[in-house]
Each structure stands twice: as structure tokens, then as C-alpha cells.
Fold these 2 entries.
Entry 1:
Amino acid sequence: MIPAPFEYAAAGSSGEALDLLARYGEDAKLLAGGHSLVPMMKLRLAAPSALVDIGRAADLAGVREDDGELVIGAVTTHAEVAASRLVRSRAPLLAHAAARIGDPQIRHRGTIGGSLAHADPAADLPMALLALDGSVELRSPRGTRVVPGGEFFTGYFETALAPDELLTAVRIPAAAGIAWGYQKFVRRANDWAIVGVAACGGRIALANMGPTPLRATAAERALADGASAAEAAELAADGTEPGEDLHADRDYRRHLARVLTRRALEGQSG
Amino acid sequence: MRVELTVNGTARSDDVEPRLLLVHYLRERCGLRAANVGCDTTSCGACTVLLDGKSVKSCTVLAVQAAGRSVTTAEGLGTPERLHPVQAAFRAEHGLQCGFCTPGMVMAAVGLLSEHPHPAQLTEAEVREGLEGNFCRCTGYHNIVRAVLSAAAQLDGAAS
């Protein structure tokens, strides 16, 4: 399968990427690792007129700490996030989630910014961002803004990113020593979650229980009011409208959300 | 557009369409047919090559994304007379049947072993997990895992 033709330009920095985006207009797409975009282009589900390759933009790579927050450059790969000592000590849930994506080859190429901007509700990192109360840094010619994870995902594969805007970094409040759990239910190795649950510090995030990653707010409130993990987990699917597909119908997804939430709240990670 | 990269140790410069996939570049432009197109959807791993030493699925990398980088295919590992230890172990342990997945499996294994300072310490479970991105429809994986563990022991011995 071969993508439709497109123009290509590599950006050496985030500034150059913004200039190129402005030049190519709104039919252009940013390319980082290309592990969400290239498969879609091969299937002709996406046919951007131009690709701006930020994979080598040095100012978009790497992990650092800034005032109690982890700041992870957009083109940092899943393998780098999973192996980072800083991420493993400050936000172990994120390192675990990154290590559960796809397979080793995919983790060598896929990036944290690319996965979040792709906004697949069944993916690992969008759910992890919500569980960790993280936010994303978005830069455009108009300036930089920081958008909380809960406001970033606006619909099925849709985000708050404007066409001329670039996701430059992910900010995660340090969660060292805070209990966490991670559950991902799949039928085949390497697959996306049929339902996923990430829990950390009283927050519960769900994958594939709606068009965007979600917080299980009813269960979170019950926990805050002193409910046990098992009691709170019974409320995990409240208010959700999960989709149906060949893997699971709506009732089964709700059942999975309750079971996986209990396990995640008990600190199990799978 | 012009793309300059190193393939199996040789510097190359080629004019390519931006949409050319790395696996097609290697097979059709470089004449290197070890990397196979299997599923063509980033699942099966038959197209695995090393990009700057790390295993990647070349059906999901554009040739232009490899510009300035170094690509290694199974042809770049060893020769029939002088096999790479992983290749030799696949032969000794009978780690293949039809052979279609083998070049990708070997490259994934080479990548996996290179990421560990002491590959001999890898457990069978870690090898199985490390090869999660490669499918084999013939062998049932047992001999492949045996081959990788055997190569790991040899490579570790050679390094120390």
C-alpha cells in the first residue's frame, strides 16, 4: 500500500516547523514517528498535501524536570519515555503505559506527542495523561498555551490543536510515591485496549469507553467520600456511552470498565 | 527529492519520491530483498531492519525519514561463509521453517540483544516479549526463542 503523493519538508526546530506549517497551509500534517499517520496514509484514510517532519527537531526531544513537573518533548519516543530514569521515578504510570504500547519496533518510532495529537480513544497515552492530570504545551505564531488533558481531547480523533499549532511538550505533575494501577484488556498481543483503565492519586481514566479518553467521575467521587476500591469500581461505567464493535458490545465494555477499575484501584498493573 | 543515508555500511545518495516507503527503497532501489513485505500494516515484523541500530518496521518508515541515518538489513549482518552469531544460531537451532519471517525475526533479535549490556542475562520470557513485534506462522516460536537465547550466550561470551 502506497500513500497518495505529498510534499515533504524536514524541520530542524519547532520554529522552523511552525514556519513550514504556515507556508503549506491547513492541508499539511506534522510527521514525527509516523506510526499513526503513515498507516492512515497507506490506507488513504489520510491524504495530506504536505508533511512537515519534526522527527529531527532537537528542541522537541528529551525529558527534563521543571518546577515539580516532568516536561517531555513531543518527539520523545515511547521507548525513551519507558526507559527514562526521570519518568520511571517521577511518573511510573507513564513509563508503564509507554512500555505497553504496540511492540518494540513501534516503541522505537512512535512519539508521545504524536500519540496524543492522534487522539485515539483506545490508546494508552491519552488515558495516562488524564490519570496523571497532565497537560500539553501548544505553540503557534500567536504564542504558547498550556491545555489540560481533560480539555485537549475534544472528540473521536479530535483535539484542541489549531491547524497552525504544534504540540511541543507534555507536562506531567510529579507523582513519585503515589499508588497507581494500570489495566489494559486486549484479545491479541500488541492490540489497542478493548477497555483500559489507569488510576493514580484518586483519579481514574478510561480508554475506549467513549469518543475520547474519559475520567470515571462518579467512581472518583465515591473514592473521595471513603468508598472502598470495590464499591467505587461499581460506578466506573456510570455516565459512559461506549461504542460497539466486533470485540465488545456496550454492556460488555461497561462490565470490563468496572472489573478493570477495581483491579487498577487495587494497584494491579497489566 | 535527494536522500543521503548509509545502507549496510555503504553511503548512498538517491532521488526518491517522499511517499516511497523504506522497505520499497531497500528492495527495489538497493536490491536488498531480505526485508519482506508481509502484512504491510506494522503488525507482522517481516520488514524489520535496524535504523541507527534500533529495530523498526520498514513498511511504516518513509525513505526520507531515514535521511542522514544508518540502515542495516539482514544482508549487512554476515555472509554465507561467515554468519552473524544470530544467523548461525537460527540455523543451528532450526529457528525457521518457511523462512519468510526469518530476516525480520533475525533483525529484531539483533536489535534486542544489542540493547542489553549482558544479553546472556535475558530470560526466556524477556526474549519472547522482545520478539512480540514479529509473527511466525510456522514454528510456534520455540526454536526461534532457543536460537536467540543461544546467540545471546555466545555474544555475551564474545563481549567479555
Note: The first strand of chain B starts at residue 2 and ends at 7.
Entry 2:
Amino acid sequence: MLKLAFRNILRQRARTGLTLAAIALGVASLVLSGGFVEDILVQLREATIRSQLGHLQIYKRGQFASGGHHPYDFLIESPETIDRAVDAVPGVVARAARVSFSGLISNGRGELPILGEGIEPEPEARIGSAISMLAGRRLAAGDSFGVMVGEGLAHALKLKLGDSVNLVLATREGAMNTLDFKLVGVFRSLSKEYDARAVRIPLRAAQELTATSGVNAIVVLLAATNQTARARADLETRLPPGYEVKTWQELADFYNSTAALYERQFGVLQVIILVMVLLSVANSVNMTLHERTPEFGIMRSLGRTGRDVFRLAVLETALLGAIGAAIGVAVGAVLAAVISAIGIPMPPPPNSESGFTAAIQIVPTILAAAFAVGLLGSIGAALLPARHLARTPVAEALRRGV
Amino acid sequence: MAASNERSAANIVHSLPKRYGAIGARSRHPKRVLVRVENVSKQYRLDDQLVPALNSVNLNIEQGVFMAVAGPSGSGKSTLLNLIGCIDTPTSGHIFIGDQDVSSESPDQLAPLRARTIGFIFQTFNLLPVLSAEENIEYPLLQFKELSAAERQRRVRRYLEVVGLSDFAHHRPNQLSGGQRQRVAIARALVVHPKIILEDEPTANLDHKTGGRILRLMRRINRQTGTTFVFSTHDQRVIDMAIRRVDLEDGEIVRLGVRVGKEWVYAMERVIDSAADSEEDDA
């Protein structure tokens, strides 16, 4: 039966070729668009992780639920025990403590509300590798009272490198506290919104400013993003009670909504291509099977049932679908590699200032899904005409041949 | 090996090895009835109109006959063959193949019966174009699970030889002449060892010489194996090669004939019967 099916699809080479081309084109475009979306999402994910979030963040239990409104209530007073637990987890590349605060920044010309972070410069430089410096440099270990601010903030206050700025905030006890800092750098992260209010100062200075000795969060960077779930589980068993671990995905609202948007769009694209494959295959399959009605009549006159005929017709189209889909996957993968080598210049994503270069990822699950669309689309296209064939009365099927 | 093949070609005896004497003699001593057609009518629906194709046909086909169904086109020949061949179902009446009433079963239910009891040969040869001669002949055997591949091959080779196409086993239908294609079709019909072979205008697409050869081949097989042959035709020369004839006109049997030497002897009972029937109906 397989042999018969193969020969049947080889009989009309031109038409088989056209059908294969339609299937392959659809599948290849799925491979390309899927790989493109995947690449954008991976880039966005890595940028999100490597500009702000790290892979994991450890808080005192309750801080996350409080929405960060009472940072002083959830201080980690002895980060050393946490550090030991983190260092025991395999795959950890860097960890950094952060103190969060909110307050005002002023330079004499104006005042703006800020979201401040006290950071450890060295590990933070490794975690924040996706943060680009527009001017000056990152905070360094020796900067006791240096400050780096986000692009939007620097622009609003017309700050220049070397300018002195003043931070004002309320301490834990409610007293106002203020310190002067010298601007060492202006940075751009992934989020324009963040850059409009972000101020980073050394951890020590932040602790002095807020008059605390603890930290709010410990940020952990792993060697690879796919280790996140395992590292989190591992870390949770090692942490003393009273702490919680959040993954980047739980913290990355922007990434999550962007990913959902892209995936929805890609889903629609997939449906469109599925319908396209279905229609073009249906057309040629319908014609081929219709022309061969007498042939299927012969088979049944020789003792085959309608079911046998149905199966042969569907098998032939399934073969076409499988071959077409395989070609499509191969072509798509090759094109993806070529396009990736050249690169696709992209405009800045929403809420972002800098463009980037996209590539096309070759992902096994996308290849498999594209193949499945090609195969299932073809089989789907064959079902109706095949059923019609199986139901055509034998005598009538044979008459068509005369 | 070659010698034994020649012998088997000259003396084909398979699972139905009954031999009959002269057909003329048999008509006087009727053999077992293979097919009974009882009061069968068939109407087709064309758009909204019912078109009568057969009207109250009664016919017995005895085992081993070599019978022509004669009549102009549109007289119902093909319909009658299709009904006997279980690829169509009658509107009313009954058809028995052996003792089985096939008139109420669907073509799919009758597929096994078609596979083992009936062989078809068509005007347009109707070979599967992507299969070689050999594979076409083997095709109906593939559904017989009890046959080993070796046994299938043996049968295929034997019938290729019977129809004289051993040298063309690997040719595709489009590489064969019309006569050769019809020989493949005959071998394909014979290979399942059917009780009856039904042929719809088997020579209509062949020239007279080739058609004559094909008919003589079939007659030889009929004589040697006792396989029943029923073929439809409107060609007088073809009719004259049959031993029996059934003449159809407008969906009704108008006469039955038996050939004695070169002359046809007609029995008109059926016509008289149906005339009597219609008189009764009128009364």
C-alpha cells in the first residue's frame, strides 16, 4: 500500500511538485517566523535578566507581597547566612545585595522623585551586563559617594558628569536624611520608565542614607537561564525559614506581557499558514483524487472496501505532507542560518530607547510544530475528498473513466 | 522449468477444475445455477428524474457458460453486469450468487465476495497505471492473507503465461498495447480463481483482430477451467463467438439464445412470460 501510494504521488510530478512547494513554503515560513519571534523573546528575556532582575531574587518573606511599599520592614539583617546558601547552589555566577529606597534628587536646578538602589558595584557589573553606559562609567568599588543615574533622569535635570547631586529621603525612624553624591555615569537599561527615575549608589552609602544595616534583596545570576527552576528549588531547601525566592519570570511583568503579545501574534500567523497550506493542498488533492475516481473504482471492484480506498487516498496525501514539511523544515533552517549570519536590524522595542539586531533561532520545538502543521494540514485537506471517493458508488466511479 | 511452464500454460487447471463437455450439450442438461437474477429492476436518479435502466429482469446463469449480453447502448447491459458483479444494488428484486442473496447488501459488505468470486474486465482495461503488469495481476491477491508471497508470485507468473505476457511482466500499462492491456486485465481477473468473470464491452476498444484473439483466449480458458464468462457487447461478430446470448432492449430481456454450430436457436419464453405478466397487470 505504501509502495502504491508512493508511485501514485510520483506519477504527476509537476502537480506533486507544486503541492510540495506550497506545503514547504508554509512550513518554512513558520520555521522562520517562529525562530524570529523566539529570538526576539530570548533577547528580551536575557536583556531583562541582565539589566535588572538577575535570575533569582531573595527577599524576606512578605516584602514581595507588600509591593515594596515598606522596604524597611523587610530588611535582611544578616546577609552572610544567605550568601553562604547561595554560594552552595551550583550554577551561580554572581550574587549582589541591594538596598531599595525612594526619595528625591536635586541639583539646585530642580527636584525629582527617584527610585534608588544601593548596589555592590563589582558583582552588579556582572549581573547588569546588558545595561549600557551612555556617559561616564559604572560605579566602582572605590566610589564611596559616586552615583549613576538613568538616561531620562539625567536628561530631565540636565546632569553632566562630575556634577554634584543631593539625595533626600526618610530614614526608617522617619527622620529626613541627605547626602551629596558625584555623578560618575549615565546608563540606559531596557526600560525607559525605569531610566527616568533610577538612581544607583554604593550599598554602604545607601545604608548610611537610610540608617539601616540590612539589605532588601540578594540578586543571583546563574550561568544559564534554563537552570532557573532547578536553582530556585535547590536554593529554597538551603535558605533558613523566613525568606522567599522569586524568579526573573515572576518579576518581569514587561517581559511577560510582551511575550504573551508576540506569542498571540505568532499563534494567529500559525493559523493563517495552516489555513493556507490546507487550502492549497486541498485544491490539488481534490483535483488529483477526482481525476482518479475510476482508479479507486477499480480497486473496489477488485474487492477493496471504501475504507481501503479512503486510507490509500489519505496515506498518499500524508506522504506528500510529510515530504513537503521535511523540505520546508530543511529550507527554513538553512534560511534561518543564513539570515542570522547577516542579522536583521530592529527598531527599539516598545518602552525602550535602543534598537538591536535580531537573528532567527533554530529551535527543535518550533521545527517540530512547523512540521506538524504541514503534515496535519495536508491530512486535513485530504479527509473530505477521500471520504467523497469512498462514498462514490463503485459503478458510478467506474463510469467516470469512460 | 520452461517446459513445465509451457505445459501448465497449455493445460490450465486451477481450483475449479470441473470440465464440461460441449456447451451445446450442456444446455440440454442444465448444470448448477451460479447466478439467479429474480425480477430485478434498477432505476437511476439523474438530477430529479428517475431513469429506468432495467425492468423486471429474470435470468439464470449456469456455471461454466460463455455468455454474451447483447443489445444497443443504453439497453441496460452494463447495469446488469454491475448488479451481478455486486458493485451496484438493484432498486427491487433479488440477485443470488450461489446461494447468497446479494441484493440487500452494500457494495462494501460485498467486497470480500467480489474479491474471491468475481473477476471484472472492462472496456477501458482499467489497470492501475502506476503498477507493472505483474503488480496489477498481483494486486487483487494482496488482500488474501492466506497466500504467501511465494504463492502469489507463482500464480502471477502462471497467469502471465496463460495470457502470453511473460516477457512483459515489468511493463507499465502505458507501455503496453490495447490488446496486451486487456490480456493483463484477464490475468488479473483469473488470478483470484473466480467463479464468474464479468466483462463490460471487453473488445470495444480493440481492433477486430485483437478483439477476436482476446475472445478466443477467453473461450479457451472457459473451456479448460470451467470459469463462467459473461460479457456485454453490441458487436455481432463478438456475439457470434459466444455460446449463449441474452438480448436486452430498453432494460428488458427480449430473447435468449443458444448457438448450435453457426446458427442461433432462440428461446422466446421470457418475452412471452413478461408479455403475459403485463397483460395480467393490465387486467
Note: Chain B has one domain: 2-282.
